[in-house]
Design a protein that fits this description.
heterodimer; A: 256 residues; alpha/beta; six-stranded mixed β-sheet; four-stranded antiparallel β-sheet; 40% helix; B: 342 residues; mainly alpha
């Protein structure tokens, strides 16, 4: 077996997970250090299952996951220490305030209390949560809750951020704020792998895009690479993505 | 505050959440809080009145224990214990399958077994609190008529709750190992329903068959049964003796129960993180996939409603177990009716 390449934040080889039918089927995928990688695909393509396996929330049937050189299946605690996971509908404790929630999350990642306090204040400021910092989360809007969860995910300064549909339900202002915070993190050397159905977000933010269909990576590259693959010229990501899906489905039909 | 990620830290977190929930329930509005307090007092008075009506004619409450009373008390404890195991199984299953904050905690580097140890302990406390709340009126009235020694029953019920939770954990983990996480969810709920109802219904059936009455006490006090049970010095009667104020027996029963729960938590919780991960795949994938025809049939609104209810019932283990429990409890009266028409 080849040793993990240290230039990659995330390396996935032959990853597979089956439920009633294969959800992820021999996936190979790599995310470089300091890269913003977006996974696209139709519903049921296996994107969330892939992210849950990377986060350690689901056991793969086979394959390997390496995070900054750490084998995430052999040493899940080591890998989790440098990762953050944010789901589409994150759980926020209704009866805690954002500050209390962040204090709890800091405890989960054993962040020193003075460091955690400083980072929490910084994140609360960045994400515009100051006025609600001491209100119970039950009264917060969906967008606010998503921002609190994002603050929780960033609190321990993860090196790999895993985001599953983080922009769902966010208003335009909040979405812009979250995009800016994520961009800043990537500039600071953090790597991000994100799924989204909002192609405009992927187009604006991703360094590379992977298109998944039926548990496999159908195409991968920058937007220009993908355009070239389907001959989409100057078409936007939506046109390119749909063209890719059509060719991918056609290819699978021929193979079948 | 305790060090992050430890059992004490998780316990503090759980207590804080429960306390806030409780406060939220009580102090939504001052008026509704007062109404809730009045309602609580009303229910307590009603239950004490009911207990008084059930117990005021009994003349054997103050007399020294004999086999008859020990048998009745052991029967009541078994009945109560089976209901507790049923409740505990239901809660333990939910602790694994309900995702809630598990994604956050399982994606962090903390060792999840500590959280589960706290949650299993919390289930024991909840089961004990609920059971004590239900039994309290009877214990108080019995203590009034039969002397303060009966107050020891509080300790026995707390001990019984610990045993019930330990048994529930062992059964649930056993199911995980033997039939896998996918089937455990349904089976655990059904087993919980059956355990909860089986003893109560079994004794009722026996009473109907032998004496033509659904009263369980009649069977437990019958001479036929008393003849077969061990003498009053047997270890079998220790829980009943503890209820009657035998302090050494109470200490032994309570101690064994506490050791049993602690040992169960210590032995099984290190694997709870893995079990919770295994359930993650199940909850994600509960609906059936496959090539099914999607031909609609013309039907009446009533039939459509009935069909929808059947489908939901089939696919929801909790609903299946609750419906099963209701049906099981209907069996003895149905049997009694059937016999009386013969």
């Amino acid at each position: 077996m080849n040793p993990a390449d240290p230039s990659f934040a995330l390396e996935i080889r032959g990853l597979a997970r089956r439920f009633d039918q294969p959800a992820v089927d021999g996936l190979d995928l790599s995310v470089r250090i300091g890269e913003f990688y977006t996974l696209l695909g139709p519903n049921g393509a296996g994107k969330t299952t892939t992210l849950r396996m990377i986060s350690g929330l689901l056991k793969p049937d086979r394959g390997s996951i390496t995070v900054f050189g750490i084998d995430a299946l052999a040493d899940p605690v080591g890998a989790k220490q440098i990762m953050a996971w944010l789901s589409e509908d994150p759980m926020i404790y209704d009866k805690l305030t954002p500050v209390e929630y962040l204090e709890f999350v800091a405890g989960l990642w054993s962040v020193e209390s003075n460091v955690a306090t400083a980072r929490a204040c910084e994140l609360i400021g960045w994400l515009g949560l100051e006025t609600h910092a001491h209100d119970p989360c039950e009264g917060l809007s969906r967008g606010m809750r998503q921002k609190v969860a994002l603050a929780g995910a960033l609190l321990h300064e993860p090196r790999l951020i895993i985001l599953d549909e983080p922009f769902t339900g966010l208003d335009a202002g909040s979405a812009r704020l979250v995009r800016r915070v994520l961009r800043e993190r990537v500039h600071a050397g953090c790597s991000v792998i994100m799924t989204t159905h909002i192609l405009e977000v992927a187009e604006r933010m991703a360094d590379r895009i992977g298109v998944m269909v039926a548990g496999r990576l159908l195409a991968e590259g920058s937007l220009d690479d993908l355009r070239r693959q389907v001959g989409a010229g100057d078409g936007n990501l939506e046109d390119t993505f749909l063209a890719l899906l059509e060719t991918g489905v056609a290819r699978r039909t021929v193979v079948a | 505050m305790s060090r992050a990620g430890t059992i004490a830290w998780f316990a503090h977190h759980e207590v804080r959440l429960t306390w806030r929930d409780w406060l939220g329930l009580m102090s939504g509005r001052r008026r509704s809080g007062r109404r809730a307090a009045l309602g609580f007092i009303g229910i307590a008075l009603f239950l004490h009145g009911f207990a008084y009506l059930v117990l005021h004619r009994r003349t054997d409450l103050a007399r020294p224990p004999d086999q008859g009373i020990l048998l009745v008390l052991t029967g009541v404890l078994t009945l109560y214990g089976s209901l507790m195991v049923s409740q505990a199984m239901e809660r333990v299953t939910r602790a694994f399958y309900g995702r809630a904050d598990l994604d956050l905690i399982l994606s962090s580097p903390v060792t999840a077994w500590r959280l589960f140890a706290v949650r299993i302990g919390a289930i024991a406390v909840t089961i004990a609190a609920m059971s004590l709340a239900l039994a309290a009126p009877f214990i108080n009235i019995v203590s009034w008529f039969g002397g303060l020694r009966w107050l020891a029953a509080y300790g026995v019920i707390a001990a019984l709750a610990m045993v019930a939770v330990a048994v529930a954990v062992i059964l649930t983990v056993g199911l995980f190992r033997t039939i896998g996480p996918k089937r455990t969810r349904l089976c655990a709920q059904i087993i919980a329903a059956v355990i909860g109802a089986s003893f109560a219904i079994g004794v009722q059936f026996a009473a109907i068959l032998s004496y033509g009455t659904p009263s369980r006490v009649v069977l437990l006090q019958s001479e036929a049964l008393t003849r077969f049970v061990p003498d009053s010095g047997s270890i079998l009667w220790w829980p009943a003796r503890a209820i009657l104020g035998d302090l050494p027996a109470l200490a032994v029963v309570f101690g064994i129960s506490a050791v049993m729960l602690t040992a169960t938590i210590s032995i099984f919780t290190p694997r709870f993180g893995q079990l919770a991960l295994a359930t993650g795949g199940v909850s994600q994938n509960s609906t059936r996939k496959g090539h099914r025809s999607c031909r609609f049939r013309r039907t009446s609104p009533i039939r459509a409603l009935r069909r929808k209810e059947w489908m939901l019932l089939r696919r929801d283990p909790w609903l299946v177990s609750q419906t099963l429990m209701q049906l099981l409890y209907l069996l003895p009266p149905a049997f009694l009716l059937w016999r009386s028409f013969l």
